[in-house]
């Protein structure tokens, strides 16, 4: 047994297959992949890693298994899946995941190949565990996969508390101990016991508050967009394929971007926090549906068109179109009066948070600081936005200066 001191859960005891997996290269790589990617550009202490988070998920999964009375090989499979659930993450976590997915067809929970080969596969087989069965749990499959990846998973319970702790933002603080104790299975479905509507709401509310404050903070989004653009250029330049990049850590990617001519400029800006600024920050009703649903090629064409019209080098403008707002946790199940009910059909809070999510949604257009004014005006016309481009650039320039003092 190994005992590890954790900043969130205090002492974590790691035993069995999880202990054997700790020092495999795939798990150790997670020490060099930051949990929140470019959020550290806003909150300097947000430097915690996927390794710490994976230990926390393992710890909470272990507590849930004990509470649910699950033991033996089934429990070991779940413990292995909990510790390994993030080994598929690319560098900078989610920041470049979708970009790499377009090339590889794989997201971070597609880990069949990683778990079947190398040291990880050997360890699993040495402990009489089928790598394919563990990979299925990582992807949320089967009865116990809901514990690892689902609406009430221990993954979410750990990252909310951990992200709140390391950013200093208190909104993610939840009673994860109660959440774990109140989990149960009803007809094979993971639910919260009777009397826990408010417990489920707390998880929902924490995620909804952390989203605009941390995960979608405008500076973090600008950094993410610049990193994604640089990585896209790296792949377009040739010499590196997406499968290779997918297995790098943060330092590997940033160092490669710095020494590649096509990406060095953006890499230097990221390294020195000389970030682009917002030329446009448009609300959902002001953005045409055709733009909200445009594919990547169409967005790239529009970026080029805005840049040329604003007398900038092509590639100097980034149009950032986030996905539609959603509240995944709203479909979690709770027992009410002996019946299993979806939270969104039981709690009026869900409707209010959906409205809040729509109100928080923003389309961003980013450009070098010296070009913000003309890019704002040009983008408003070119993209068909129902806003005054002058107002956006002028107001946001002053607001950015104020917010940059905060982060």
Write up this protein.
The chain is 54% helix and 10% strand. A hairpin with a 3-residue loop joins strand 1 and strand 2. The model is unreliable at 393-399 and 401-407 (pLDDT under 50). The longest helix is centred in the middle third of the chain and has 20 residues, at 218-237. The protein has 21 helices and nine strands. The protein has 407 residues and is mainly alpha-helical. Helix 20 (372-382) packs across helix 21 (389-406). The two termini are 41 Å apart. It has helices at residues 16-21, 25-28, 50-68, 72-84, 97-104, 112-116, 118-126, 131-138, 142-148, 154-167, 176-181, 197-215, 218-237, 242-246, 250-258, 264-272, 289-292, 296-309, 348-360, 372-382, 389-406, and strands spanning 2-6, 10-14, 183-186, 189-192, 277-283, 318-320, 333-336, 339-342, 362-367. It folds into two domains: 2-209, Orthogonal Bundle (Hypothetical protein af1432); 276-324 and 361-407. The strands form four sheets. Strands 5-9-6 form a three-stranded antiparallel β-sheet, sandwiched between helices. Strands 1-2 form a two-stranded antiparallel sheet.
């Amino acid at each position: 047994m190994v005992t590890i001191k954790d900043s969130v859960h205090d002492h974590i005891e790691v035993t069995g297959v999880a202990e054997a997996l700790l020092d495999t290269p795939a798990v150790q790589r997670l020490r060099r992949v930051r949990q929140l990617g470019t959020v550290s550009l806003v909150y300097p202490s947000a430097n915690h890693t996927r390794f710490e988070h994976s230990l926390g998920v393992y710890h909470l999964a272990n507590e849930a298994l004990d509470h649910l009375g699950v033991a033996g090989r089934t429990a070991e499979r779940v413990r292995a899946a909990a510790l390994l659930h993030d080994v598929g993450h690319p560098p900078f976590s989610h920041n470049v995941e979708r970009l790499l997915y377009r090339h590889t067809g794989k997201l971070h929970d597609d880990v069949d190949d990683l778990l079947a080969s190398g040291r990880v596969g050997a360890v699993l087989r040495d402990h009489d565990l089928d790598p394919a069965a563990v990979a299925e749990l990582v992807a949320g499959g089967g009865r116990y996969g809901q514990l690892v990846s689902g609406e009430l998973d221990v993954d979410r319970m750990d990252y909310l508390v951990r992200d709140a702790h390391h950013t200093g933002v208190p909104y993610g603080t939840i009673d994860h101990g109660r959440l774990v104790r109140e989990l149960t299975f009803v007809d094979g479905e993971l639910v919260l016991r009777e009397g826990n509507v408010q417990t489920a709401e707390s998880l929902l509310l924490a995620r909804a508050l952390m989203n605009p404050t941390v995960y979608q903070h405008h500076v973090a989004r600008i950094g993410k967009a610049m990193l994604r653009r640089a990585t896209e250029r790296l792949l377009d330049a040739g010499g590196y394929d997406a499968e290779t990049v997918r297995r790098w850590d943060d330092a590997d990617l940033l160092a490669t971007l710095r020494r590649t001519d096509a990406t060095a400029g953006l890499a230097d800006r990221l390294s020195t926090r000389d970030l682009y600024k917002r030329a446009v920050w448009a609300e959902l009703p002001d953005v045409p549906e055709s733009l909200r649903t445009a594919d990547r090629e169409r967005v790239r064409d529009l970026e080029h068109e805005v840049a040329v019209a604003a007398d900038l080098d092509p590639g100097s403008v980034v149009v950032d179109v986030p996905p539609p707002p959603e509240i995944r946790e709203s479909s979690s199940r709770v027992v009410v009066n002996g019946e299993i009910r979806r939270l969104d059909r039981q709690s009026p809070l869900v409707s209010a948070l959906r409205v809040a999510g729509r109100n928080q949604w923003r389309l961003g257009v980013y450009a070098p600081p010296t070009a913000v004014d003309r890019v704002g005006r040009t983008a408003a016309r070119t993209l068909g936005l129902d806003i005054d481009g002058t107002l956006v650039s002028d107001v946001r320039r002053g607001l950015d200066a104020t917010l940059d003092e905060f982060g």
